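Handoff note, outgoing to incoming analyst
You'll be picking up this chain. Sequence as last confirmed:
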Amino acid sequence: MRIKAHFKLREIAGEAIVVNQGTSNINLTRIISLNSSARLLFCELEGKEFSLEEAAYILEETYGLEHEQALCDAGKWVEALKQCEVIE
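Most recent structure output, in case you need it:
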């Protein structure tokens, strides 16, 4: 998996927002706001190929989660970003 290159993380009014840069067909009615753990994963994994296991490992190391919980949380993050077409 990979976060599409034209999606960038920006800080707007104290919120971590994913913006779609460099494409002409932008849907401005859709805003993707990230909580702290989603922001962490986005920052750590942006620009590189990654697996669900790698995303889970980041959550395990940062938050001290059990492996199963980290996998579940990472899976939810991946699915949410796939729905928004941020991950390919």
